[in-house]
Each structure stands twice: as structure tokens, then as C-alpha cells.
């Protein structure tokens, strides 16, 4: 009897601990939902309040039902224990008794079967419900336009999975992990565009740089739901990618970017790339794929050398590298620049220019 009581106490403690964890997770989710809705959007704020109340009520009901079920199981277990003790008094030729562990398994299986039956009944009822009717009509409208609804699991990655699916049709696939990483990177390189929309839930003040950094880290390293800001960043990030091979011009002037976007390799038809007035310290290797590029502006950045990858830009006519820290040309960096007619190198730290560059080129 004492062992049974200890076991029951452990189960109750575990249940209470799990309930406490689920409440914390719900509060984190609610906070994310609040951050995603602007304070001045009264209509969405009202809907948000209703959604939050619904989520809290559902969790409270779920926890109450689980506690009641545990108490019921505990009561039945005590009765079984008493019955087992009495059964020990019967004659030896009576049939063997069923073990307590077996009874618990049978009860658990019965409860699971009952739950599945309730789910099946609910699904049958939904076939005639308003939601099902609405879904059927929407499916018909989409089918007429050769479109369809795609189900995305609500696992915290749902927004990124939806974007991932759409990009597959644009011939520029990116994984969920890559989308999260690039979204966070874009937001960190455009702090002034996103920081005003994030406020501390406790003080109401705008996020500090440290809090904003933590927010971006969570995008990369957790399953945090995407709010209003993440789709904004994604939209800006993949705007050029949507054009795929047809994209001709990309301009990211003065965005405080600290790294050239590696997705450039998805834009082989690019003609003009403007990345001036940023904080880029080196040219990314992917630039070698832009063989149709005719104009490249990397002025006012933090470059220290002209890399070897430049030699693959065989169609390049204008190259702006002014206002950097360039002090050297990599070996063979200019071997393929036979079409170059303008090279801007003023305000750098160069003491020597390769002869193949200065020959028949307009230098500034």
C-alpha cells in the first residue's frame, strides 16, 4: 500500500510539473503573438485578446481534465489494491489474479480507445459543419483557377515551411534552416527598420540592442513562431529571388549590410548589382557565378583587397571600388576583365595597380 501511494504521488508531481512547463510555453507563445501585432492596430489587438483568452481557457480545461483523470485512476488503483489483498485469502485452486501493472495497462488502453472514438465522432460531425462547408467551397474556387490548399503543420516552423514551399516553384529553393538564418541576418543588418516595432512586454519600452539580438538568435536557434516582422524581412530578402534567372538589377544601397548575400548565385542573369554604402569586408565567392554582370558598385565599404573571383566577371564594364581599404589585388584578379571600361579606385590604400587594369581602362 505504501509503495502504491508513493508511486501515485510521483505521478501527480510529474503532472503538475508538466502543467507548469506548458503554461510557461503558452506565455512565451502569447508574448510572441503580442509582439507581432502593432499597438495602434485596435482591430487586430481586439482579435488578439480574444485568441489569447481562448488559448488560456483551453489549456486550463485540459489541465483540469487531466488532474481529474489522475485522481480517478488513483482511486481505482486503491480499490484494485484492496481487492488484490482480499483475493490473497481465497483458496489455492482459484484462477491466478491479474497483476496491478496489467490492470493499469488495460485501463490506459481503454481510455485511449475512448479518446479515438471521440475524435472519430468529431470528424464525422465536421463533415457537415460550417468549417467543412467553407473549405469545400474554397477548394472548388481554387480548383477552377488551378490552385490548391497546402496543409502546413503548426510546429513553430509553419511560416518558414510555407515560404520554403513557394520558393520551390521559383527555382530558388531554400531550407527552413536557411530561411531562418537569412531572416535573422537581414533583420540584424537592418536594425533601424525592425527595432521600433519590438517592445519589452514588462516595461512597454522599445527593445534594447541586446534584446533585439536575443530575438534574432531565437529566430535561428529555436522554433519560435514567425510574427509580423519576419514575413516583412522574408519578403525583402526573396524579392530578387522571385525573379530567378530574369532578375536584372539588385540594389541594396546603404542598408548597413555586413556580408554579401550568398543567394547571388541564384541570379545568374543579373546585370547590375549596387551594394555601396554598407559595411562589407570581403567579396563572397558566389560572385563568380555572375558572368552576365555589367555594373558592380561596392563603393564605401570595408574591402581590403580585390579578390581572385573578380576575374570571372567577364561581362563587367563598370566597377566601383572607391572609399574602401583596398591595399592589394589578388593574383589574376583582373585576368578576365577584358570588357572593363571604368574602374573607380579613389580613396583606398593602393600603391600599385596591375598593368592589365590600367591599360585601356578609365581609372578614377
TrEMBL record:
SMART domains tied to this protein: LRR_TYP (SM00369)
Catalysis performed (reactions): Thiol-dependent hydrolysis of ester, thioester, amide, peptide and isopeptide bonds formed by the C-terminal Gly of ubiquitin (a 76-residue protein attached to proteins as an intracellular targeting signal)
Keyword Repeat: yes
EC identifiers of the protein: 3.4.19.12
Protein name in the entry: ubiquitinyl hydrolase 1
Domain OTU: 147-286
Upper lineage: Eukaryota, Metazoa, Chordata, Craniata, Vertebrata
Organism: Equus caballus
Keywords: Coiled coil, Hydrolase, Leucine-rich repeat, Protease, Repeat, Thiol protease, Ubl conjugation pathway
Amino acid at each position: 500500500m505504501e509503495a502504491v501511494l508513493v508511486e501515485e504521488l510521483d505521478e501527480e508531481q510529474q503532472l503538475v510539473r508538466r502543467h507548469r512547463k506548458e503554461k510557461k510555453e503558452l506565455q512565451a507563445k502569447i508574448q510572441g503573438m503580442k509582439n507581432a501585432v502593432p499597438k495602434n492596430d485596435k482591430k487586430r489587438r481586439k482579435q488578439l485578446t480574444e485568441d489569447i483568452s481562448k488559448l488560456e481557457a483551453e489549456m486550463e480545461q485540459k489541465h483540469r481534465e487531466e488532474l481529474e483523470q489522475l485522481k480517478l485512476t488513483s482511486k481505482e488503483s486503491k480499490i484494485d489494491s484492496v481487492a488484490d489483498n482480499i483475493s490473497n485469502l481465497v483458496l489455492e485452486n482459484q484462477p491466478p489474479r491479474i497483476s496491478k501493472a496489467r490492470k493499469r495497462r488495460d485501463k490506459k488502453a481503454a481510455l485511449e480507445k475512448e479518446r479515438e472514438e471521440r475524435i472519430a465522432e468529431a470528424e464525422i460531425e465536421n463533415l457537415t459543419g460550417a468549417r467543412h462547408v467553407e473549405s469545400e467551397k474554397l477548394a472548388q474556387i481554387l480548383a477552377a483557377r488551378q490552385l490548391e490548399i497546402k496543409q502546413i503543420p503548426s510546429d513553430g516552423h509553419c511560416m518558414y515551411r510555407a515560404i520554403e514551399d513557394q520558393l520551390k516553384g521559383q527555382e530558388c529553393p531554400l531550407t527552413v534552416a536557411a530561411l531562418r538564418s537569412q531572416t535573422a541576418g537581414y533583420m540584424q543588418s537592418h536594425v533601424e527598420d525592425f527595432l521600433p516595432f519590438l517592445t519589452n512586454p514588462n516595461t512597454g519600452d522599445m527593445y534594447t540592442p541586446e534584446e533585439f539580438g536575443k530575438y534574432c538568435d531565437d529566430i535561428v536557434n529555436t522554433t519560435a513562431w514567425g510574427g509580423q516582422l519576419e514575413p516583412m524581412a522574408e519578403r525583402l530578402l526573396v524579392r530578387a529571388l522571385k525573379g530567378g534567372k530574369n532578375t536584372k538589377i539588385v540594389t541594396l544601397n546603404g542598408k548597413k549590410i555586413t556580408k554579401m548575400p550568398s543567394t547571388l548565385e541564384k541570379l545568374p542573369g543579373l546585370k547590375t548589382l549596387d551594394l555601396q554604402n554598407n559595411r562589407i569586408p570581403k567579396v563572397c565567392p558566389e560572385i563568380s557565378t555572375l558572368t552576365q554582370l555589367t555594373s558592380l558598385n561596392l563603393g564605401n565599404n570595408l574591402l581590403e583587397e580585390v579578390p581572385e573571383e573578380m576575374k570571372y566577371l567577364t561581362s563587367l564594364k563598370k566597377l566601383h571600388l572607391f572609399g574602401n581599404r583596398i591595399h592589394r589585388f589578388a593574383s589574376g584578379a583582373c585576368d578576365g576583365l577584358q570588357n572593363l571600361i571604368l574602374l573607380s579606385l579613389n580613396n583606398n590604400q593602393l600603391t600599385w595597380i596591375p598593368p592589365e587594369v590600367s591599360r585601356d581602362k578609365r581609372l578614377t
